[in-house]
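Need a sequence for this fold. Nothing fancy.
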């Protein structure tokens, strides 16, 4: 009896089979793509936490309250655009456990790679908050920009975070993880950053506008601010699960379109050149939509939302 694919560590991590090739120059081994992705997520979330918490501290110290909210939203939105653009080809540029969770439930993320991403994202956020604490004078007076509910109940704070993350992750899936938008995927960081900035602007007066569990975890660990902390994990992750499932079974089902098949054929044609150079023989890749690569995780995912080899 053949072994179940769910017992295969390569399948669960999203490591391609031996005859699978990427479009890197020079080509990298599958395991190199995994660990480089983890390092990329660590660094990206570290930088993002620095910008998010730093903007909150700067706004509190030097800017009037109304203009401060605008400053926070702009800095965080532009930071996401820059970091997602830089990491898109390395790790997918998640830099947010809610994004990773949404992709997992949408079938666009390998099962074991998702918790690894979330772990390194949390580690990066803690390191970023620690560096910020040592770099900015009087940062501790403002709790390093830790997020806590303000003028609202815990349930209201949870609902605000839940709803804005629903909108944010829907934009992520619609612009960067859906093969129907493959022509415009290079522009995906812009609407993603705009969606996050809008969400921060809306939620900031009540919840601090986290939209990112790791961003809230960093200053909470460094400063020990745990007031209503559960809100900033239950809200975003709950929203990510709901949106991921809805997007998977409503928008990612059905047979592949002609545009999707043409996209796969063109991509595999480019891959064959790299494969012949690195392996020295003709590519055995079938011309099938099952070899689609998701722009946000770099692994093969079919239109129906399950990893290659399923």
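Here you go.
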């Amino acid at each position: 009896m053949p072994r179940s694919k769910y017992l295969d560590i390569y399948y669960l991590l999203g490591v391609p089979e031996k005859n699978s090739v990427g479009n890197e120059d020079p080509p990298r081994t599958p395991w190199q793509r995994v660990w480089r992705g983890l390092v990329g997520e660590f660094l990206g979330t570290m930088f993002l936490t620095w910008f998010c918490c730093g903007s909150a501290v700067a706004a509190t110290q030097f800017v009037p309250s109304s203009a401060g909210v605008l400053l926070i939203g702009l800095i965080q939105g532009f930071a996401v655009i820059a970091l997602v653009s830089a990491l898109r080809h390395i790790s997918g540029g998640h830099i947010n456990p809610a994004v990773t969770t949404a992709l997992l439930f949408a079938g666009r993320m390998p099962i074991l790679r998702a918790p690894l991403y979330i772990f390194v994202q949390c580690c990066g956020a803690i390191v970023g908050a620690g560096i910020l604490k040592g770099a900015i004078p009087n940062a501790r007076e403002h709790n390093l920009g830790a997020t806590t509910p303000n003028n609202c109940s815990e349930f209201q704070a949870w609902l605000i975070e839940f709803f804005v993350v629903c909108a944010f992750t829907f934009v992520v899936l619609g612009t960067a993880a859906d093969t129907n938008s493959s022509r415009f995927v290079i522009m995906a960081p812009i609407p993603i950053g705009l969606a996050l900035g809008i969400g921060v602007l809306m939620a900031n007066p009540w919840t601090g506008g986290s939209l990112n569990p790791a961003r809230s975890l960093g200053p909470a660990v460094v400063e020990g601010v745990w007031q209503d902390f559960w809100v900033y994990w239950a809200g975003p992750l709950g929203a990510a699960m709901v949106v991921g499932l809805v997007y998977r079974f409503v928008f990612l089902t059905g047979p592949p379109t002609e545009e999707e098949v043409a996209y796969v054929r063109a991509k595999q044609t480019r891959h064959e050149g790299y494969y012949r150079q690195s392996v020295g023989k003709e590519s055995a890749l079938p011309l099938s939509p099952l070899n689609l690569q998701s722009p946000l995780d770099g692994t093969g995912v079919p239109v129906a939302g399950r990893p290659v080899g399923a």
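For context: Residues 17-27, 279-310 have pLDDT under 50 and may be disordered.
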